[in-house]
Amino acid sequence: LVAFQADGTVTRVEDAGLRAAAAARVHVESGCRIEEKELRSIAAYMADELLKELRIGGATQHSDLLRTEPLRNRRDVAAITFSGGVSEFIYGRAAASFGDLGFYLAEEIRARDFGAPIACCNGGIRATVIGASQYTIQVSGSTILVSPLEAVPVRNVPVIAPRFKLDLADLDTNAVAAAAREALRRADLLDRDEPVAVAVHWQGSATFRRIDAFCRGLVDAVGLSQPLILVFDSDIGGLVGLHIRDELDLQVPVISIDGVELREFDYIDIGELLPAAGAVPVVIKSLVFGAR
Would you say residue 85 lies in a domain? Predict the structure, then answer.
């Protein structure tokens, strides 16, 4: 709901985050600095609202944010389980903050008495929203590029899927850039302060000329201030990544992987390189919301 950098600079605030912050009397907006005590205040308010919803249901002023039907059967509860990104902190499976409220919300949840013990479940998912479908795959290490190796892991990176015209014999740099900018606009990410993952369905040959035109157009649109993350569905990730790093002399991290099919509005986690396999673990989160 509220994303921020290591120095506390807010990079993204969702509507629900704004509402929770306002209720906790914390001013927050993109670009401002937020203190740890303010993050804890927002998280404490959210935990209190969760407790109200679980105990008496429909009593909070934010019941309209529920993605499922309110709880109706309120018999004695033997245990409470959690699933999603925050649960990684609740159950002690993660310790480092990922630049959002998850760590603080988990601490506030653990500090409250929900009237039943918190139990661990075996089937939890790490996705950040209810309704997200997630699957994990392993990418072939022989056709990817991660430079430098410290560029991973990355987490919760939004995906754009530009409508590149890659079936042409000669690729137009300006057309590639225009398609990428349009995809950023559709996802409301033109003025972002965070990296995006560019999903590419490559078509045609992988000649130097075609790859060069593609890379220059893409870099022109996506910019040079954030790590460049490319995800291909065919075995060309390493080749394109090497071209960007060596021919364009980019000064930002480059992550170029393949063998993965993504859709617009997906989110992706890319883990650290697995030395034995020469691969990176990938988690894809597809957001699926029903109509209200």
Answer: no
